[in-house]
Design a protein that fits this description.
Length: about 140
């Protein structure tokens, strides 16, 4: 159908081409010559295609491998940096724990000293208690 439409629309040009012997007949216009390939040509073509594909794949893999290696190196550097930071924090925490235990110890020692001083003060007070009680009794009247 497409062939007949094309021929009718371009009848003048087609007739002119036949008269001028540009083409031999109308059937030559739509005839497609199949390429003649030998088995050796096909295998050679196949090998060249495989080589091209292998080169492209190798380039792509090399590029991805270098990207992955770069990322791995940067991650290792970051990990080392963080490990140093974590070690520093661990030592700071240990120092704080030591300081806190020393502070607790000195605080409890201070409480013990204060307690002993208060007991000494209270032990000395009974001799003065009757006078204080008498003063309080007179003040309340």
């Amino acid at each position: 159908m497409l062939t007949s439409k094309t021929l009718t629309l371009n009848k003048f040009i087609v007739d002119l081409m036949v008269q001028e012997e540009i083409i031999k007949s109308l059937s030559c216009l739509f005839k497609i010559n199949k390429p003649e390939l030998n088995v050796s040509d096909i295998t050679e073509y196949k090998k060249r295609l495989e080589n091209i594909i292998n080169v492209l794949l190798e380039e792509k893999l090399t590029h991805r491998l270098s990207d992955s290696e770069t990322r791995l190196n940067s991650l290792e550097a970051i990990t080392q940096s963080h490990s140093k930071d974590i070690d520093g924090m661990k030592s700071d925490i240990k120092m704080m724990q030591t300081d806190l235990s020393l502070f607790k110890e000195s605080s409890s020692n201070n409480h013990n000293v204060t307690h002993k001083l208060l007991i000494l003060i209270i032990n000395r007070l009974p001799s003065q208690m009757p006078t204080l009680q008498a003063e309080q009794a007179t003040n309340s009247l």
